[in-house]
Design brief:
Blueprint lengths: L1 H21 L3 H24 L6 H31 L11 H31 L5 H5 L10 H36 L17
Helix pairs in contact: 2-3, 3-4, 4-6
This protein binds protoporphyrin IX containing FE.
Length: 201
């Protein structure tokens, strides 16, 4: 009887240990899902707000949302990258082939890079164009770029072009996640799920 109780404790410990090793840390998952929700709202806001014929106050609202949440996303990606550098992700599941691992790594690296480039280009487009970013202005943070129409135009093109690339990668990323969870059911999705809790470090 005593022995069975001990076995149960050991079994639970081993299971918990296995879970902590195969899942991203709690902060990494929390940041991932918070950013996912914000990005999936920020992209449509950016696409809609530049359409002609919009109600003026709705358009202003979309611009304010897009610029300020965009800046927040830039801060969050810095925090997320710093966390990741100090807390390496769990090893990739052995069910993945070498080519799948390579594609996943490249996609993730490209998304990290674009999550820096796209909001920075958005910032430059707005500030070089002489427009406000309400949250930064309220904090009296001065513009980090000079006022220049030429610079604003370049930044606009970069923001748009790399924004499209980011959208394509996000679509691929979501497609791959759905494929793993719905078709292969190989536990890849549960490495990043649930957003909070779930027995991790
Ligand atoms: C991850 C963050 C961001 C994403 C994914 C994103 C994405 C987009 C997308 C898809 C568009 C539509 C492109 C077009 O049709 O021209 C757009 C437009 C725009 N974005 Fe962002 N954006 C982000 C951050 C920011 C930031 C931080 C700012 C400024 C503080 C900003 C300012 C703008 C502006 C001003 C436009 C309109 C461009 C124009 O026509 O001048 N964005 N964004």
């Amino acid at each position: 009887m005593k022995c069975k109780g001990l076995d149960l404790v050991r079994f639970k410990e081993a299971k918990a240990d296995g879970m902590t090793q195969s899942r991203y840390t709690g902060p990494a998952r929390g940041l991932h899902w918070l950013m996912a929700v914000l990005i999936l709202l920020t992209i449509p806001a950016g696409l809609i707000m530049v359409q002609p014929g919009l109600d003026r106050s709705f358009q202003n609202w979309l611009f304010i949302y897009h610029k300020n949440v965009g800046v927040l996303l830039l801060l969050l990606i810095v925090v997320r990258l710093l966390w990741r550098l100090r807390n390496p992700p769990p090893p990739k599941p052995s069910s993945l082939t070498a080519i799948q691992v390579r594609i996943a790594e490249l996609t993730h690296k490209a998304m990290y890079a674009l999550l820096f480039v796209v909001p920075i280009a958005g910032y430059v487009r707005v500030k070089a164009g002489g427009f406000p970013i309400e949250s930064l202005d309220a904090l009296n943070i001065p513009s980090l770029v000079p006022r220049s129409e030429a610079l604003a135009e370049v930044a606009k093109t970069v923001h748009y072009g790399f924004g499209l690339l980011l959208m394509a990668l996000i679509a691929m990323h979501i497609g791959a996640a759905l494929f793993h969870t719905m078709v292969k059911q190989d536990g890849v999705f549960s490495r990043m799920w649930p957003p909070v809790g779930g027995g991790t470090r």
